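Final report, Chapter 2: Outcomes

The project's central promise was a pipeline that accepts a single protein chain and returns its three-dimensional structure in a standardized token representation, suitable for archiving and comparison. That pipeline is now operational. To close this chapter, we reproduce one record exactly as it appears in the project archive, with the input sequence first and the structure output second.
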Amino acid sequence: MKEILKATVLMAVIIAVQMVLSYAFTYHVAEVFSRVSVTFLLYYYVFKAAKVHGRAAAAK
């Protein structure tokens, strides 16, 4: 549950930064930032889940 809350807060931060970048620069810059950061966030949680699952399987 703690990880879900963390991911939700990070998504809100990404959206806020996207809005600021869109205002300060262009929509394209903000869109590139969003895509890169969301992709990084997805891979981070996928690899983290795989690591935890691997430890649990090794413990059995």
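Archive annotation: Residues 49 and 55 are 10 Å apart (CA to CA).
This record, like all others produced under the grant, will remain available to the consortium after the project formally closes.
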